[in-house]
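Memo to structure team: turn this sequence into structure tokens by end of day. - J.P.
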Amino acid sequence: MRVAVAMSGGVDSLRAAVLLKEMGCSVTGIHMRLPIPEAEDAVRDGTYTKREEQLLTLAAEFSIPLTIVDMRRGFEEKVVRPFLEAYQAGRTPNPCIVCNIEIKFGVLLREAIEMGMDFLATGHYARVFPPESSKDRFKLLRGKDTSKDQSYFLYGLTQSQLARAVFPLASRTKVETLAWAKAVGLSSSFREESQEICFIPDGNYQEFFMRRLQLDPDAQKGLILDEEGNRLGEHKGVFAYTVGQRRGLGISSSAPYYVLAMDPVANVVRVGRQQDLYCRGFHVEKTNWVSIPPPIAALRGQVRIRNQHLPASATIDPRGETYAVVTFDKPQRAVTPGQAAVFYDGDLVLGGGVIRRR
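Reply from structure team:
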């Protein structure tokens, strides 16, 4: 079995590649050169970035050939620009999900196939099961390590993408992966994992937007209003806020205020109290039914409205193949337009989509 492994330079993808070699697969590493700060000085001398050199050394230690593919233009067009546009529209997108669909299992998978590979493997903690019959579908499931499960980021994959996907860490845990790195003397080779977006590693979203969009800081300012329309303060730009945010509002009050919504047309950030963040239902667009055919009637499941959200029981009512309305049994906090809502039946990922509105 010829498998290309998407190697980011992290411990998970390296462990995935080594596991496949141990299984007897023909393994080739494939690394995406992306427009992130570590790679901005790439090819100054016509070769590699410092990060790429480190990855080449690591791969060589395990006799894994490594190909570096320049994805900067595609990543900019398919991930970074839509990310910027969504925030400008008052939405909070998840670029990692878009990257998995459009870049890793899109552009990179096609590149791997052109190289003669049969499959593309990643270091995701998730499981994929093949069809049990010719009429069945590939199924996506949560990984064994529920604390690290990354199925949320993969709900958008198609059947043809799942057919080529391999997740060697499916039945492993993050603790086991870190223990392996320590056992082979590589624990110091990997940086501590960041929870930030790869192209904004310092987490300073406001500075990133101002720089990339060349915005005038004064022109972005607007009003912070409560639900009755009372003026409570001034914001720095709607793109600097997200639903549920408490810090950085600059409002003096005996009880905290939270962001409820951003209105880019009126250039207003609306705030309310903690209880105002809860809602029973929301609309979902761009739905993808990954493990089951698109349902024609409402169904029960558990819905996750962000990666760290504990899936909550709900009714999912499809309105065509690419739209649905979700109603929770109990109100949930901070339903955020632009984020993904992923539908589960236990460990099985039924599908998911993008939250449109409460």
